[in-house]
Amino acid sequence: MHLLPQGDAPKPHPEHSLLFDREGLRPKWRVLLFLAAMFMLWPQTERPVNWVVAHGWVAGAGHDEWTALMHLAAFAAVLIPTLIAARLERLPLDSYGIPWRQAFRGRFWEGAAWGLAAISLQVCVLQAIHGISAHLSGLSGRTSFAFAGRWGFTMLAVALFEECLKRGYLQTVCGRTLGFWPAAVVLASLFGLEKLLVPEYRTLIAFLSVVLYALLMCLTLKLTGSLWFAIGFHCGVEWCTVFIFGIRTPIIPHPEGTLLNVVFKGPAWITGGQSGLMASILMPLLIIALSLVLRVRFRHTQQLGKPSSSH
Question: What pTM does this model have?
Fold first, then answer.
């Protein structure tokens, strides 16, 4: 029997390794390391928030300041592993949908306008069919500007965290293996199941709305090449829902300092009722309509990873 000389044993092909493939560490391990790093960092990034709350400098849980700071802390826990991954993979942050040169520029503000318009349309339809009634809350002019800014900052923090977590590094890495849309469907479904932990989302319509909303944000990522439109849209939706209309959300169950007070009068499956607008049958219909309109709006832009020349 022929024996190979010592040191000449055949090496396993990279594709046969449990840890590595031709591009380095396999995507599933990258995802697990990313999630592990995020969950390890999260308690550390929350420490400064807990410290300022303990010293009475910021109101506690449930208030807008606390919500904003906690989501900024969570965003930091997502951003740091993303930056480390970008350095290790020798890729720009743009590769994960977060081009900082485009931060808070045209795409962000356009997304915010679309989000504000979408929720306003839904509320107007509900009022037209007598599903809700809206009344002025009595805020004064100067106070309303102050609350508008506070809620804007809070919803920006929420949007940064949720969009960068759900449509950033995870979407990119999973998309390399599964393809963009299969990865989007898997992640949207998983995060939709996570929402079932919140009582307000434990309805079929709310769950469907959450999944479709996630896919709509993935569509804007695909069409625009970055997350900034999605971040702006998310911020606009939340700001309009809470500050303009005073409608509760799972994140803000008891909003204070709102322009209007909205009372739901119709069946919950139409209005959403105490579960909020995501539980209204109008929400999935609105999302489907938006997806069609946005495809027309961005029909001339390039695909993910190739930002539009306008930027």
Answer: 0.87
